[in-house]
User: Which sequence fits this backbone?
């Protein structure tokens, strides 16, 4: 796949002509991808992201490594990276080498850590694109060998598994591993990290293990750089996890890591993302008329129904069938029948003011009104899954009052 085709695949090609606005910050590619006026789209309020970042900084008072993996939780990897860099975020964290490479090649200059794995074959690009790499396997020695041959210094963060059990060198073998890595001539240890389990009592045990490792390394004269452990949950609930740097993810985008923290709303966060679509058809049903596959909705009386041009292929969860509402003209209308790949049907409850072409809000960035947290409760999916599940090909419109 050619590079410009790949950029279009990521959804950062030129947006449709109807997005031509002073409010919009757009990324263009050589190849223009046409988007219909009737297609769904995503709007991102950058001012809300700036607000969330400010509230996080007020709480933690240490450097921030902003987590932008998974297409920045559905908000758009490249635009969010550029915006956060402009906002002065000290680090960016991704989950795949591909993300780090593409960010560097798009012009992002601030420090980037790939928290994901790497292979022997990836060593050269890690070094040539000048991003930092999380290490926890024997592949670190291949990285040093390649750095030696290229006469470069590789930048690494040693990742410790203190109990989450996902990735990382076991805390039981950590000191031995750190000693070996510290002796590698062409690698610089910039930091040391761990992941917490978000079980409060066990988190404290994990932090104890982590701090003991850090203390032992320093006692041996090993420079371990910045210690980081706290993600959004730790930032909110465990001050001890703030250490030298924190790794907020979901909170940057205006949501919390759990239903409980969402209700508490300690930071007064503002959601940034809206999913929008258009009314593409309006029809009247007579008693006995049905909708969708398997006749999942049968009219008992005359009903006015709108078809919305969005569906589960765009990331709208099919479990919201018969449970959620949408907003049209600032009024709520219930989703009926089955959410299909490209269509949602809503009962207009005989509101004859709704017309083809009207804007429909499926996920709202106005707090307390049809946000991803509300949809999460209705369909049993986490806010993470709803946001990350949004189709990366959907055009994204970035709005800021400062533009």
Assistant:
């Amino acid at each position: 796949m050619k590079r410009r085709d790949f950029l279009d695949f990521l959804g950062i090609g030129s947006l449709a002509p109807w997005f031509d606005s002073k409010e919009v910050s757009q990324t263009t590619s050589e190849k223009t991808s046409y988007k219909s006026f009737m297609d769904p789209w995503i709007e991102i309020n950058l001012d809300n992201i700036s607000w969330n970042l400010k509230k996080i900084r007020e709480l933690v008072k240490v450097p921030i490594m902003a987590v932008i993996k998974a297409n920045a939780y559905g908000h758009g990897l490249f635009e969010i990276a550029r915006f956060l860099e402009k906002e002065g975020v000290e680090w960016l964290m991704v989950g795949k080498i591909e993300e780090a490479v593409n960010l560097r090649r798009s012009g992002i200059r601030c420090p980037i850590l790939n928290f994901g794995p790497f292979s022997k074959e990836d060593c050269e690009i890690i070094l040539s694109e000048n991003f930092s790499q999380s290490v926890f396997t024997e592949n670190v020695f291949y990285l040093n060998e390649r750095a030696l041959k290229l006469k470069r210094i590789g930048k690494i963060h040693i990742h410790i598994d203190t109990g989450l059990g996902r990735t990382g060198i076991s805390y039981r073998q950590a000191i031995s591993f750190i000693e070996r890595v510290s002796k590698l001539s062409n690698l610089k240890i910039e930091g040391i990290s761990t992941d917490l389990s978000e079980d409060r009592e066990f988190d404290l045990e994990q932090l104890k293990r982590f701090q003991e490792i850090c203390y032992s390394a320093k006692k041996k004269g090993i420079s371990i750089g910045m210690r980081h452990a706290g993600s959004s949950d730790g930032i909110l609930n465990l001050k001890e996890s703030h250490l030298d740097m924190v790794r907020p993810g979901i909170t940057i985008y205006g949501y919390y890591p759990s239903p409980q923290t969402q209700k508490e709303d300690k930071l007064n966060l503002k959601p940034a993302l809206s999913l929008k679509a258009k009314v593409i058809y309006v029809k009247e049903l007579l008693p006995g008329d049905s909708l969708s596959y398997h006749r999942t909705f049968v009219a008992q009386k005359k009903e006015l129904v709108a078809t919305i041009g969005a569906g589960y292929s765009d990331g709208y969860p099919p479990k919201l069938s018969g449970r959620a509402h949408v907003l049209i003209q600032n009024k709520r209308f219930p989703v009926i029948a089955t959410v299909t790949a490209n269509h949602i049907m809503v009962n207009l409850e005989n509101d004859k003011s709704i017309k083809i072409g009207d804007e429909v809000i499926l996920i709202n960035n106005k707090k307390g009104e049809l946000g991803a947290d509300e949809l999460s409760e209705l369909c049993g999916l986490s806010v993470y899954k709803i946001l990350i599940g949004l189709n990366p090909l959907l055009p994204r419109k970035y709005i800021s009052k400062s533009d």
Remarks:
- The radius of gyration is 24 Å.
- The CA atoms of residues 279 and 308 lie 5 Å apart.
- Residues 200-219 form the longest helix (20 residues).
- Residues 1-31 have pLDDT under 50 and may be disordered.
